[in-house]
Fold each of these.
Amino acid sequence: MDAHAILHTAANTVALAPVAIPEPGPGQVLVETLYSCISPGTELRCLAGQQPDAAQWPYIPGYALTGRVIAAGPETTLATGTLVFCSGTMAASVARMWGGHVSHALQYERAVYPLPSNVDPLAAALAKLAAITYHGMRLSRPQPHEQVAVIGLGPIGQLAARLHQLSGARVVAADPLAERVPSPSKAA
């Protein structure tokens, strides 16, 4: 099928273009994207050609997506209509750098996660960014009495500041963009 994807076609060049996605094979599902999540720092670094392990141009960026299963291949158990989270597409007519910014994604059923009915698919699209943040927090093991500095308050920095605050640590945060830094009265 023809899907549409955001493509990084060359350094600092973005396009919206059709990409061919094959029909689901054994153990695969086709997901219609509802939301994908932008990680500005990573995607701008990739777009500038500064990602060490970057795919060759053109490629589909985007960490992850949430969507609805619209077709399933043989040997699958997910019903059509199931809301899922996944890390982009595994097969397309162009390379992918995670591949989340695509209208339809083909993925192995074992690599998609059904969303519980009480989870908003828009919020679930942030799961990959939250996982990155949580991994960093687990590595640093903040203690409730400690002070934590968060430098950069993009999506991952915002999540890091909030998770560390929830852990009981005192958070000090900074960003070169003043509008990203909450005033003391709004920080609580």
Note: The domain at 2-124 is CATH 3.90.180.10 (Quinone Oxidoreductase; Chain A, domain 1).
Amino acid sequence: MSDHPFHVAGGLFAPSRHVQPEPLTLRRPALPEDASDAPQLSSRRRKLWEIPHKFHCPVIGVCFGVEELRGLMAKTMLFPRDTTDFVLHTTAVGACETRTPLSELLHKQLEKRFLLNVRAFAKAKDAAALRALWKEAVRTGLDLPAALWSSWTHPACDILLEQDIYADIHMIQHQLGTGTRAELSVLKLLKEEITLLRRQLDEARQEIEAQRAEKSRETRKLGERVAELHIEIARKDAYTATLAGQLELLRSSLPDLKDRQTLARRATDAEARANALTAQAGELGREVDYLRGRLSTQAEQSEKTIRLLLADDTGHTGKTAAASSEAATSLSGKSVLCVGGRSGSIDGYRQIVEQRGGRFLHHDGGLEESLHRIDGVLAAADLVICQAGCISHNAYWRVKEQCKRTGKPCIYMKNGGASGLSRLIDLKQKEALPATPAT
């Protein structure tokens, strides 16, 4: 039999410089044929090199990653950098058959890593309890490497349990291989998706960077504009302070400035009132001229009426003349103010008032004429006719309040008929006349 193990390609690995390991001899020791696979049942846990050699392959493959195994083996032996993972694995498996520096290092690493699990499995006092713990680990799939190491090195692990564990871990490795192939296809799809997402992420980052640059430019412009506005405000504040100082200087140089300003305001108000009175006087003059023309026209009509009445019966004429004279003189010398009303009814109101010898005044109730003028015409009127349906609210309450305060008679009309106005005037005049004694 060759001195070179089957798992070493090209010969044995040389030991490292800083470690002087024992010569690596992977030849099986001479054991009795019936005791080669039998576990050494004792009260202590078994070492890595004390478990059956066929279990070393699952232990090394399941409990150590490739890169970790490469680092641990580099501490005890030298091997080329391009050594394949398979050669490293088979070399480590062969080194665990006996007690070697590599097997001792791997054993220490396993004991240190799975210390808590070893303590948990140490509570099992027989093979049945140990089998239950192993089956639970297989069912959950959690900490299988730790359960594998804790079970095979346990003192209560017998030959049957060893074989069951070996069968379970063997099938799990096959299942993992099958799942790995499926996962590789899924991994390929995921890598493609990741590539697409990274491309989209890069585009989004570029867009965000562009937007950030644009926002930075806008922010810089706004900052410059704010600085300009601050400067402008400061300049205006300084100018305002200068003007305030000049104003105070002028006020101190002109002690009677406030009195002059008050007089100027009063003069302006007086001028405005004078203009209003002038306009009112002009309007009253026009009304006087109009009334004079109306009086001359009525005088002519009265003369014609008298001449016609003289031609009738004397007794009948006397009674009619007396009634006409009473109607004509019922408003003699009185000013009648009509506030509001429709424009088409104003002439009819004027004719009724003038036929009774009164002077007709009119105000539209604030529709077109100013309400300031209504106070003057109310003061000059002896009788007020308020068209409640054709007047503004302000004018209505103003007329009502002033008539109530001055005791001036006021007639409120809801409709705008001329006949209704005539009856209301006659009724108001009869209420105002003193009662005559009966003859």
Note: The two ends are 177 Å apart (CA to CA).
